[in-house]
Design brief:
This protein has 5 helices and 10 strands. With about 230 residues, the protein is an alpha+beta fold. Strands 1-10-4-8-6 form a 5-stranded antiparallel beta sheet. A 5-stranded antiparallel beta sheet has the order 2-3-9-5-7. The termini are close together. Pfam families: PEP-CTERM.
């Protein structure tokens, strides 16, 4: 392999390695359901003291329900009722809903949401967002509270992520994982959280800058060229 190819491969490896900062978490389903007047939210817990990070600064959720979660149109994909970090260790969904949460979420400006696709018939928007795909937390989604209705007649208090949608929460401060528990609510109790990918990070999640995207593309191209030369 020529020196230039080795250099490209080294740049690619360094760039890709620096982008991988997510630690997957193991979830346990709690007993019972919680939610709104028509309660039907299942709650899943992760013990973050066992993940090997001293503190976290962001949490990511990716819908991975294989086009089966949620329903058609604006309710496609994983329906997220709420997300909470707490030092209270709960065994039931009702306990998680009532537990004191840490004030480290900024649901208005600290959220990066990439809406997934809808199954036909396609609606103008996913539930919990406006037609542009922007999260409407204070108005509709209310992701800080376990208040999602399990009925689609008068849905309230949750976000439909869409098939293969992603959402990242940047915390307002580094949060120690010692004695820390993550609670995630899934409207409808359909097992969608268990099918999703939940990760935590010790760094905030940022939208890639155009320059960094170009660098990543060049690095990947260099790595592919190096493989062809070999």
């Amino acid at each position: 392999m020529k020196a230039s190819c080795k250099a490209w491969a080294a740049v690619a490896a360094l760039t890709l390695a620096s982008a991988v900062q997510a630690v997957p978490v193991s979830l346990t389903k709690l007993t019972g359901v919680t939610g709104g007047t028509v309660a039907g939210t299942a709650v899943y817990k992760a013990d973050l003291s066992t993940i090997g990070l001293a503190s976290i600064l962001s949490i990511g959720i990716r819908d991975n329900s294989s086009m089966l979660g949620g329903s058609t149109g604006q309710f496609s994909g994983f329906d997220l009722d709420a997300i909470k970090l707490s030092n209270t260790d709960c065994l039931t969904a009702a306990c998680a809903a009532g537990a004191a949460g840490l004030s480290v979420f900024d649901f208005m400006s600290g959220v990066l949401f990439a809406a997934g696709s809808q199954r036909a018939p396609v609606e103008p928007k996913l539930f919990g967002t406006d037609p542009s795909g922007t999260l409407l937390d204070d108005a509709v989604a209310t992701l800080g509270f376990f208040d999602g209705e399990s009925s689609t007649v008068t849905p309230d208090g949750f976000l439909s992520m869409g098939d293969n949608g992603t959402i990242d929460f940047n915390l307002t401060a580094a949060t120690s994982t010692s004695g820390l528990f993550l609670y995630i609510g899934e409207v409808g109790d359909n097992g969608e959280v268990a099918a999703g990918a939940i990760v935590v990070r010790d760094t905030p999640q940022r939208l890639p800058e155009p320059g960094s995207l170009a660098l990543l593309g060049l690095a990947a191209a260099g790595a592919a060229f190096a493989r062809r030369r070999r």
